[in-house]
Amino acid sequence: MKIAIQNGTIVNNNEKFKANVLIEGDRIVKITSDEIEADVKIDASGKFIMPGLIDMHVHFRDPGYEYKDDIISGSQAAVAGGVTTCLCMANTNPVNDNASITREMIRKARECGLIDLMPIAAISKGLGGKELVEMGDLIEAGAVAFSDDGLPVSSSSVMRAALEYSKMFGSFCISHSEDCSLCRQGVMHEGKVSAILGLKGMAREKEEIAVSRDMLLAKLTNAHIHIAHVSSEYSLKIIEMGRKEGINITCEVTPHHFSFSDDDILQNAYDANFKMSPPLREISDIKAIREALKSGLVDVIATDHAPHHNDEKIVEFDRAPFGIIGLQTLVPLTLKLVKEGVISLERMVELTSANAAKMLNLKDKGRIAEGMLADIAVIDPDIEYIYDEKINRSKSINSPLFGKNLKGAAVVTIKSGKIVYKFGE
Amino acid sequence: MSYKRKDLLGTIDLSTDEILYFLDAAKEFKNLNLQDIKKIDYLRGKTTINAFYENSTRTRTSFEIAAKRLGADTINFSSSNSSVNKGETLIDTMNNMAAMKSDIIVLRHPSSGAAKLASKHTDASIVNAGDGMNEHPSQALLDLFTLREFGKSLDSNTTVAIVGDIARSRVARSDAWAMNTLGMNVKIFAPTMMMPKNAEVFNAHICKNMEEACEGSDVIIMLRIQLERGDGDVSFPSSREYSKFFGLNKKRIALANKNAIVLHPGPINRGVELNSDVADGEHSVILNQVESGVAMRMAILNTLIKNRG
Ligand SMILES: [Zn+2]
């Protein structure tokens, strides 16, 4: 079957031009300004044709907490957000610390057939922070990186060994940067708002100390460290310094950290849908994150899609779990950065797919070009809609944007040459 | 001047008029409490529930007496023998209580924001009797009532020092917000680890020592100290050390203005934050606070019942 996407603007990390795209099988076979014949024609007038988004940080809660989301609902939410590749974190139950779980996750996603699921395996067995997982075996099974996300590795020796060992297999570690000895049962950012609300705060330094440590361990081991969900201005300064020194350090930020601040918790009277870890920080941090998105310091935008059941979130703020869903709000929130002039469309592609493809060594993803895998998001920057039950594909609704008006969305998502999502259908 | 809302959740958004309304209303009830027969039937046929998820004999008793003096049926519910341990959510519990046709739920809860959450999800009127480290509005109102009773003006002519665990104190927050609104001069003082980061939000002068806190103050509000904390914070070295550097004694109070008064939300740690020579001395109005507390709570319950129509 042949699919043609016509009259749209192709956006890559370094170019933007009008052309028609022909897809045959699972590949992009032709990019041309000529009319093309095809079985299915998609009119993309006024829309952007971008590489299918790659989300380096999601939690599908499968196995173990399928009532929050599972690999199927997670995949559905992903493609509804234009995301065709997801890296799933290991804090499932049982933990993804062995090859059989990794294989099962990949198998289930393939059967569902909407996205490519690439598991991130745990760094330590049972997320215990002590014994390393069988990294070689896990890589063979399909794992692409290692992280004890959610539970930081507190021992520097274990983290050092993880970096050294993962490097042997050409892989890398992802740091959930948190020095928990500075936690003090904090539930939000420590600052003015926590002082007003009487909620226990988490100091920025809790993150910055851990970013520093893991960066120094990358320096020690010459390995690649990727810092997940950077939320503070000073963390970015530390990363910038490390880059200049030649340390192999990359980082991601989430849409919620560049869109909201702790002040939203004040305005929304303890709504636990604004509770996440790392917590929403201050305007100065948002500014720094936006600056780093612009300058190139940030490599990747990832959602940290973290579904929690509504029953778990409509509770006292300090009792609610950390995290919000994000797959379907990734495009509108990132487009907002484009509209506000923070980043260009090309940079958006770099941040949402091209850089991740490079980091993960996915040679046929992250670019709209002949011969590439036909993973494509057709994005309408102007479409307006309410993000509600009809649109939401996750099993959970824990988003501060749920029920709100959004602008911009993926209107058609194509995975390996198959249309896997159409807006409104 | 009146108060028209369904709940009383905090002082942070109370207007000057609303604060003064409660103070005036409490005055009537204070007079009633001085009569031989202390009962009035304003709340006859109404039901109030004291839902206490945290122990507080003092506050609970005060609300219970207040409700009973107004003729309400009042029920006490405490978490130790409640459904909380069976995993029921706060919203479910509140809804169950509302379904039993209770008019007012007086809620004490260890989580900041719990009263707001409860008010959003139930029809019953909620009185916040202390939520986590957030607010304790009836305490602030009775503090202000006591100030007025002892001749302190509720404006910029009066300087109040709040001393103790500012970071975790709901009394400090409620007092500070209300005093800010009234335009009073507020000073705060605490050992650094008991002072929140960004304490400037309290719009208060941050003192460097007890002497500075006491000097020139018309009112000193001492907070209750809990030296042992199970919340991961580094605990204070000792009560001896606390008393030495942060306690209020006769010598320090001599630095305050003439006729200065000392308040404390109770129960007192004698010899720690407050020496007995002060607690039982001429400046102490702690028992007056307790007495006025009943009147203030009667005013609050009566107002909310009226607002229910
Ligand atoms: Zn994380």
Automatic annotation (TrEMBL), chain A:
Sequence positions that bind substrate: H59, F60, R61, N91, H308, F322, G323
Gene Ontology terms for molecular function: allantoinase activity; dihydroorotase activity; zinc ion binding
Known EC number: 3.5.2.3
Protein origin, superkingdom: Bacteria
InterPro entries xrefs: Amidohydro_3, DHOase, DHOase/Allantoinase_Hydrolase, DHOase_cat, Dihydroorotase_CS, Metal-dep_hydrolase_composite, Metal_Hydrolase
Annotated ranges, domain Dihydroorotase catalytic: 46-233
Keywords linked to the UniProt accession: Hydrolase, Metal-binding, Pyrimidine biosynthesis, Zinc
Residue positions binding Zn(2+) 1: H57, H59, D149, D304
Catalysis: reaction(s): (S)-dihydroorotate + H2O = N-carbamoyl-L-aspartate + H(+)
PANTHER family named among the record's database cross-references: ALLANTOINASE (PTHR43668:SF2)
Protein name per its UniProtKB record: Dihydroorotase
Automatic annotation (TrEMBL), chain B:
One GO CC term on file: cytosol
An individual GO BP term: 'de novo' pyrimidine nucleobase biosynthetic process
GO MF terms held by the record: amino acid binding; aspartate carbamoyltransferase activity
Span of domain Aspartate/ornithine carbamoyltransferase carbamoyl-P binding: 6-149
Enzyme Commission number(s): 2.1.3.2
Residues that, per the record, bind L-aspartate: K86, R170, R224
Residues annotated for carbamoyl phosphate binding in this entry: R58, T59, R108, H136, Q139, G266, P267
Reactions mediated catalytically: carbamoyl phosphate + L-aspartate = N-carbamoyl-L-aspartate + phosphate + H(+)
Aspartate/ornithine carbamoyltransferase Asp/Orn-binding domain location: 157-303
Pathway per the UniProt entry: Pyrimidine metabolism; UMP biosynthesis via de novo pathway; (S)-dihydroorotate from bicarbonate: step 2/3
PROSITE patterns on file: CARBAMOYLTRANSFERASE (PS00097)
Keyword Transferase: yes
Keywords: Pyrimidine biosynthesis, Transferase
Keyword Transferase (UniProt): yes
Xref: InterPro entries: Asp/Orn_carbamoyltranf_P-bd (IPR006132), Asp/Orn_carbamoylTrfase (IPR006130), Asp/Orn_carbamoylTrfase_sf (IPR036901), Asp_carbamoyltransf (IPR002082), Asp_carbamoyltransf_Asp/Orn-bd (IPR006131)
Quaternary data: Heterododecamer (2C3:3R2) of six catalytic PyrB chains organized as two trimers (C3), and six regulatory PyrI chains organized as three dimers (R2).
Family classification: Belongs to the aspartate/ornithine carbamoyltransferase superfamily. ATCase family.
Function: Catalyzes the condensation of carbamoyl phosphate and aspartate to form carbamoyl aspartate and inorganic phosphate, the committed step in the de novo pyrimidine nucleotide biosynthesis pathway.
Protein's name in the database: Aspartate carbamoyltransferase
Organism whose genome encodes this protein: Campylobacter californiensis
Lineage of the organism: Bacteria, Pseudomonadati, Campylobacterota, Epsilonproteobacteria, Campylobacterales
Gene: pyrB
